[in-house]
């Protein structure tokens, strides 16, 4: 349904949105990364600003052309997962809402060389990885500020062990975030400009909202669910 959201239901609220995809350096010229453009996070930031919030956008490797220039949006650029974590927690300490829309690298190279790795006749050496912190789970566990609403995003496909929603429910319970927006991805869903479909779950895995359409419409569905929680907490 195309109900236009209240213009000011986030007025006076401070929100942090992470966007893009983290990059983990292997050597001075190479990294481990992912294909996230940052569009969903940017649209979340713009939608929040439109609804009255003061926004910090923590942008991980988002193209310059995509980063919004808006008086209510402060942008902090980061590259790696550890930088993203620091920036999100720093801005999150005073925020009413933190939304983790960034695609965070699950692993990073255990060491980064200061010189470029050279091609040798003996073939490549394996790259040892270590696990990155789970920023969303940490935010949910630590609660940087009382009453803060912590939101995650999950792109899922169905597989032999369960459908999209089953995986989403399991993730919602595991992460402990207040809200998890679960997005079905596949050959023709979730990437690029094709319409998105999200189901919004609470920490128990119950469905509390749905959104579909453009990333901007999905963003408004997420803020609808967030605004409902903020209202519930203050009444
Ligand atoms: N996330 C995070 N820190 C990580 C990994 C993920 O904060 N190290 C956040 C993402 O920003 C997103 C949510 O957790 O909001 C879900 O990410 P996802 O990659 O789907 O979850 P994982 O727990 O990494 O599970 P999977 O094995 O499916 O990748
Ligand atoms: Ca992951």
Automatic annotation (TrEMBL):
It catalyses: (R)-4'-phosphopantothenate + L-cysteine + CTP = N-[(R)-4-phosphopantothenoyl]-L-cysteine + CMP + diphosphate + H(+); N-[(R)-4-phosphopantothenoyl]-L-cysteine + H(+) = (R)-4'-phosphopantetheine + CO2. Pathway: Cofactor biosynthesis; coenzyme A biosynthesis; CoA from (R)-pantothenate: step 2/5; Cofactor biosynthesis; coenzyme A biosynthesis; CoA from (R)-pantothenate: step 3/5. Its EC number is 4.1.1.36, 6.3.2.5. Keywords: Decarboxylase, Flavoprotein, FMN, Ligase, Lyase, Magnesium, Metal-binding, Multifunctional enzyme. Residues 15-235 are annotated as: Phosphopantothenate--cysteine ligase. One of its GO terms (molecular function) is ligase activity. Its cofactor is FMN; Mg(2+). Signal peptide: none annotated. Residues 10-228 form the DNA/pantothenate metabolism flavoprotein C-terminal domain. CTP binds at residues 106, 116, 133-136, 153, 171, 175. This is Coenzyme A biosynthesis bifunctional protein CoaBC. The lineage of its organism: Bacteria, Bacillati, Actinomycetota, Actinomycetes, Micrococcales. The chain holds residues 171 to 405 of 408 of the full protein.
């Amino acid at each position: 349904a195309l109900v236009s959201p209240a213009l000011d239901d986030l007025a006076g609220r401070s929100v942090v949105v992470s966007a893009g995809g983290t990059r983990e350096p292997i050597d001075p010229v190479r990294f481990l990364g992912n294909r996230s453009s940052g569009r969903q996070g940017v649209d979340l930031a713009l939608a929040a600003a439109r609804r009255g919030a003061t926004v910090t956008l923590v942008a991980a490797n988002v193209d310059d052309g995509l980063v919004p220039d808006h008086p209510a949006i402060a942008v902090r650029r980061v590259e790696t997962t550890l930088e993203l974590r620091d920036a999100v927690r720093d801005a999150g300490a005073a925020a009413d809402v933190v939304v983790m829309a960034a695609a965070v690298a699950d692993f990073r190279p255990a060491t980064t060389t200061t010189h470029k790795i050279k091609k040798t006749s003996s073939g490549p050496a394996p790259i040892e990885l270590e696990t990155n912190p789970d920023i969303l789970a940490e935010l949910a566990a630590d609660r940087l500020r009382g009453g803060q609403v912590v939101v995650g995003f999950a792109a899922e496909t169905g597989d032999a062990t369960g459908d999209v929603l089953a995986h989403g429910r399991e993730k919602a319970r595991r992460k402990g975030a207040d809200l998890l927006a679960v997005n079905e991805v596949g050959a023709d869903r979730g990437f690029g400009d094709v319409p998105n479909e999200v189901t919004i779950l609470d920490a128990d895995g119950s469905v509390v909202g749905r959104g579909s359409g453009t990333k901007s419409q999905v963003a408004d569905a997420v803020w609808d669910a967030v605004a409902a929680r903020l209202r519930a907490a203050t009444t």
